[in-house]
Amino acid sequence: MTDTTPAYTGPERVFSGIQPTGSLHLGNYLGALKKFVDLQDTHDCVFCVVDLHAITMPVEKGVLADQTRQIAAAFMACGIDPAKSVMYAQSSVPAHVELAWIFNCVARMGWVERMTQFKDKAGKDSERASVGLFTYPVLQAADILAYKATHVPVGEDQKQHLELSRDIADRFNREYDVPGFFPLPEPLIKGPGARIMSLKDGTKKMSKSDPSDLSRINLVDDSDTIARKIRKATTDAGVIPETAEELKGRPEVENLVGIFAALTGRGVESILGEFAGQGFGAFKPALADVTVAHLAPITARYRDILADPAEIDRTLARGAQQANAIAAPIMDDVRRVVGFWRP
Ligand code: AQP
């Protein structure tokens, strides 16, 4: 049977966020930040440093505010322009928390229990994980829908959470009989860079929390460090193959070729055409050059922006006002729809 429920017809809006939980890496950049920058010229965009998400795991005392400034600086260094996009810290806009509570009462336990990120992050001792870590994806749905965002640029690892956001939006619309009230947000995942893997293990995603710094390229790494990490990246005894098909089953090689493609905008086949039949002696230095050329200007801008924390604070404060101005009327409507008492 086809669903005849009226769809959301409001304006398109992009929303995404990054946690202030440590230094950003090439995976965050290619999977998320680079897409944010590409979208800001064509869409109404809201980008958030999700500090409420960051406290779902233990955070070292006293570092949260500075880490928030660092992510805001990285956003701008990568090309987010606060004159074009709204950029702010999540905890400075109360709508996130209020809508998350309402969504906690819309989402079903079974839905949230299926989330694999909780299982990965909580590990074996899930009884000791915070309740916040469990309801993390519900807060994520609130982040998106407090702005009625229609499109969400994220890496592949966030696909399941985005599906949950759609389920929550759909259930809210049905439960409160307000068809089309919330959009069903579309993940924007496709494209090179959607899943960048660890340089040490091609089956694990590149991650801030990997204990080995050699597993990732940080956006603040200098050129020597980048070259050394790529030189030490795990490969296999084979040579560079001729076709993308032959990369299957060789996750480390596939990852390095994928990074080359994502950074240069070239197709995988064209890169293979250049290096096919060779070992990694020529490929790795070429990849290091491409990576350094791409990241060096970002790193330089990042350091300049970070040198003026007061300006970052002013930018985040302006962004919070803009974000509040979008979310406040939406939250007024949500309270009315839920049926809370109002004077
Ligand atoms: N390896 C990756 N490849 C592509 N995209 C990635 N993202 C993260 N890792 C990769 C995308 O980056 C955005 C922000 O991520 P986040 O900081 O909010 O949370 P995360 O996914 O938990 O990032 P990390 O680095 O893996 O942190 P830890 O180690 O703390 O868990 C998201 O869009 C994500 O998809």
Mean of residue pLDDT values: 96
Order of helices and strands: EHEHHEHHHHEHEHHHHH
Structural class: mainly alpha
Spatial extent as radius of gyration: 21 Å
Strand order within the widest sheet?
1-2-3
Bound molecules: adenosine-5'-tetraphosphate
Q: Tally the beta strands.
A: 5
Main sheet, how many strands, which sense, barrel?
3 strands, parallel
**What is the molecular shape?**
globular
Straight-line N-to-C gap: 43 Å
Indicate the low-confidence ranges by residue numbers: none
Number of distinct helices = 13
Strand content: 5-15%
Task: Tell me the helix content.
Answer: 40-55%
Q: Could you characterize what this model shows?
A:
The protein has 343 residues and is mainly alpha-helical. It is globular and about 70 Å long. The termini are far apart. 51% of the residues lie in helices and 6% in strands. Strand 1, helix 1 and strand 2 form a beta-alpha-beta unit. The protein has a three-stranded parallel sheet with strand order 1-2-3. It has 13 helices and five strands. The model has no long low-confidence stretch (mean pLDDT 96). Helix 4 crosses helix 7 and helix 9 packs antiparallel against helix 12. Adenosine-5'-tetraphosphate binds next to helix 1.
